[in-house]
Amino acid sequence: MRDIRVAKPYARALYEAASEQSxxxxxxxxxxxxxxxxxxxxxxxxxxxxxxxxxxxxxxTFQQIFDDSVHPLTLNFLKLLxxxxxxxxxxxxxxxFSAIDDEAAGRVVAKVTTAVPLTLAQQDQLxxxxxxxxxxxxxxxxAINAEIQGGFIVQLNDxxxxxxxxTQLQHLRQQLAKG
Length: 179
Description:
Elements: H1 2-20, H2 24-40, H3 42-49, H4 55-66, H5 72-83, H6 90-105, E1 107-114, H7 120-134, E2 137-144, E3 152-156, E4 159-162, H8 165-178
Parallel strand pairs: 1-2
Antiparallel strand pairs: 1-3, 3-4
Helix pairs in contact: 1-6, 2-3, 4-5
């Protein structure tokens, strides 16, 4: 809960600054890169979460890592977070930023869990079908969970579509147990 309270003003400020500088698309791309980096690099994840490293060290490290690879606004934002010792809230800030961007663009987020990765064609088809259902543009957040065995689970706002093999097998077991 505290993460969200801290994240909201920072995310809102970044969104407004990006809008004013007509850099929204660049910042959205940078946030996607940062998410990927956090997921793929344990060292980077430790850098942003470590309370031991000094703000100066983190700021200099952000400068070295991102100097030519992100928009200057993104780099300045990361350095600001380091100086305020708020970089450990980066994931929450990015989540709130994405929610603000989705709301402003009239998009909804669908969280999709599959046993194997979806192809781009499958993702496009699912976005289209969910768009028809919701009446809005859909952005997918995908996750892989082999335990569902096949099929998919989609969460769109408060609605869950569970077409997983694991759930279907569970229903069959229950029906067989009832006789």
